Amino acid sequence: MSARTQFRLLTKLLSILAISACNRTEEPHSSGDAQAAVAPPPAAPAVAEKSAPSSQPACVVPMAAESPHRAPNALHCPADPGASELARGYVSFPDAPGSPRLNVELARSEAEKERGLMYRTKLPDAQGMLFSWGGVEEPRMFWMRNTCIPLDMMFIARDGTITGILEQVPTLNDQPRGVPCPAAYVLEVNAGWSRSHGIQPGTMVHFE
Fold it and tell me: What total number of domains does the chain contain?
């Protein structure tokens, strides 16, 4: 083959290659940026919604839907050995119907708290006894030794929120009772008083 013929074949081959290169469709890039542009975005991880902060304590024990049976007074009450007069104050329930208010005796010393409402044969409807631990919250347990009148016991947090209520606690009973919530105060009233005044766990108590 002559040099001129070789030159013509080479020129023709280069022309074919040039046309082929112009007509080729360009492949998409395989880099991460290109893939991110065409791929659907990954699903966001599920995040549980945080509830709004609550002003109530974390521990509140709901009251039973129905009132328990009425606990009777003790038929025979032990003789009262005598005790000193207690200081007094008031508690009120501004969120309850009628905003009821109680005149309360204050049991603050260990001796006063240990005696409580022992040997009483009656308690006026608008009165009660408030046990105080100076704002220190701990689980509190109560019994009804030598206590002759059935009671409701309201367990109260440091901020004044009722965390639980024991209703119709029977008389002359040594069984320890409480609620599984820390309390800084316990208010004892006549059995049935809480429910009859619309007071339940979560209700606020105002100390006067």
Answer: 1
Instruction: Establish if 138 belongs to a structural domain.
Output: yes
Q: Both tokens of residue 16?
A: 């074919």
The reply to whether 140 falls in a domain is yes
- pTM to 2 decimal places: 0.73
Q: Name every residue whose Cβ is closer than 8 Å to that of residue 94 and which is 6 or more positions away in sequence.
A: 204, 206
Residue 75 CA to residue 77 CA, distance in Å, equals 7
9-14-15-19 Cα dihedral, nearest 10 degrees: 140
**Residue 198: CB partners within 8 Å, gap ≥ 6?**
96, 97, 98
What 3-state DSSP class applies to 36?
A: helix
> In this structure, is residue 14 part of a structural domain?
no
Query: Is residue 200 situated within a structural domain?
Result: yes
Q: Give 175-192 pLDDT, tens digit per residue.
A: 999 999 999 999 999 999
Domain range holding 128? 98-207
CATH classification of the domain holding 196: 2.60.120.1140
b/e burial code for range 47-70 (CB count within 10 A of at least 16 → b) = eeeeeeeeeebebbeebeeeeeee
pLDDT over 70 (residue 39): no
